[in-house]
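Design a sequence for this backbone.
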């Protein structure tokens, strides 16, 4: 019986997630990181004024970053990864010790960052299917960042 309990304890230990494997490596600056990526992918990469927005997306008083790949021109093609669903946006949180990590990527048309009930939220314009609709009117999804996760508040 003792031997069976010892084996079960070892199996439980092997199946337990280790915190070190679940954490992302911090990057110094998302603008530099992403621009470097596209400068390697494209022979000529140009970045528009709206490529990066530096805003506090999780209401912690620390400036975070949102990258809009629709503002990238790669080898003469503007927004090469944009399509009928919109363009890729990458959302990064900055930690107080320094450095950033990505919390989400979304394919959206655009967003407004507004104050609602005392908190800053994103109102994202997305393809209607994200609101389970088949019409042509964009889905408006309101999202708040809590901790390191995006939480959907409403969709219409």
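Sequence:
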């Amino acid at each position: 019986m003792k031997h069976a309990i010892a084996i079960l304890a070892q199996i439980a230990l092997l199946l337990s997630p280790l915190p070190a494997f679940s954490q992302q490596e911090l990057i110094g600056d998302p603008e530099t990181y992403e621009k470097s990526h596209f400068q390697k992918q494209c022979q000529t990469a140009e970045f528009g004024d709206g490529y990066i927005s530096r805003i506090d997306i999780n209401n912690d008083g620390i400036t975070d970053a949102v990258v809009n790949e629709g503002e990238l021109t790669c080898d003469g093609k503007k927004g090469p990864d944009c399509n009928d669903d919109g363009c890729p946006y990458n959302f990064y949180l900055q930690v107080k010790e320094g450095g950033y990590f990505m919390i989400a990527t979304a394919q959206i048309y655009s967003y407004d960052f507004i104050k609602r009930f005392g908190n800053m939220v994103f109102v994202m314009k997305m393809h209607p299917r994200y609101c389970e609709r088949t019409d042509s009117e964009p889905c408006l999804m309101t999202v708040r960042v809590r901790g390191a996760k995006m939480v959907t508040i409403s969709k219409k």
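The chain has a mean pLDDT of 85.
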